[in-house]
Amino acid sequence: MAQETNMQAAFENVMAASGNIPPKQKLVLAASLELFAEQGFANTTTKEIASRAGVAEGTVYKRYKTKDALLAAVLAPYVTEVVPAFVQDFAKQVVNQPYMTLHEMLTTVVTDRIAFIKGNRAVLQVLITEILVRSDLRKQLTPRVLPLLQKNLYAVLDRLKANAELVDWPNDRIAQFMIGTMITELARSIFTDEDLDQAGPVLLAFLEKGLAPK
Amino acid sequence: MAQETNMQAAFENVMAASGNIPPKQKLVLAASLELFAEQGFANTTTKEIASRAGVAEGTVYKRYKTKDALLAAVLAPYVTEVVPAFVQDFAKQVVNQPYMTLHEMLTTVVTDRIAFIKGNRAVLQVLITEILVRSDLRKQLTPRVLPLLQKNLYAVLDRLKANAELVDWPNDRIAQFMIGTMITELARSIFTDEDLDQAGPVLLAFLEKGLAPK
DNA sequence: ATATGTGGTGAGCATTCACTCACCTATTAA
DNA sequence: TTAATAGGTGAGTGAATGCTCACCACATAT
User: Is pLDDT above 90 for A130?
Assistant: First the structure.
């Protein structure tokens, strides 16, 4: 499917952007992400990171001057590249197709996002945790994500509402339910460690019914 | 409304149980909760707690021997008292009323939970954050909450399904959507700092439509 | 050959922080 | 009056941890 291909392209962009990074530094990044997801950022020591990456502690600090910079380096590509690419990708698929139905749109969103969650459980878990803990990160992220939603998603929602295909609620509420429902699936996978393959149709049906006009 | 009264009773139980606690220790608990919610558990020092509570650092350790014990003391009453009382309270209202419709049940749940979220934003934020970070807490909590849901909520769901009032999905999926949708409202309030007063009807409508039979 | 730069190392430093302890005060018990 | 107990204090401590730095290895340029 086209959306999956494009999403993978977003990943590969990140990987390509980290092409200049020497191999041991990649190990450091990978170990950081793993440990942050397992134990949380604050409960992870740089010594642990070094040991899991199989490098000396000095190596951890060679490129990333502080532990915070390391967290930023792990999350930044997702915030500045993957998520925007993801949203704009969605836009390309959906915005320019004026006859797309609610069902078709939700199918796209759900399919896409489930694949995304599957491929990024660890990063997403770290990101959500740190968003809850660090109010500065919250304030940094909001102006980056909100306009993207407004310019891409909201236009589609307005059109569907005009066609009486979508319930007449404020766009932020509808986005809340769409994104929130997807995140319940992430939460489920964190709790149960179960795979997400079966989830698609149910999530889709729940959203489609819940967001149908009255 | 009856459910709100009962829920307040649950709060008061906690407060009453902490009746033996000397006043300065209550200040310590209150300051801990505030700071944990603002900065996260790991980013909060015992010196900060002491200073916000207006006591000496030794006082913090008089009753609670470790910082972890302090976190437990803050969360425990909610895990062992408030949440179970809350669920069983729900049971009393709903389980024994065989003619209750989906609409009535969801009204109860949504009304109740919104009030609960409003009154417990801080604790819930700390609880969710720590659940994401500490896998041990996750494993400790699951066997305490799951049976409660199964014995109380699931019975009602089964009956509604039998009456063809509720969509025929597994109970855990339905619970996921119910709880998840409520949590999206908590997330919204964390992001926007907006009050939750207006949310009730929309959440209710979304759930009711989403969970209606096909 | 020499110099320069990049990536890597790990012992060690400075600081922070959870936690302790000897002491104080006040209330209750004997 | 004395003893005992409980709550409170804050300077002090040891361990942990983020971070540095002098040094090494190797490649490329001069």
Answer: yes
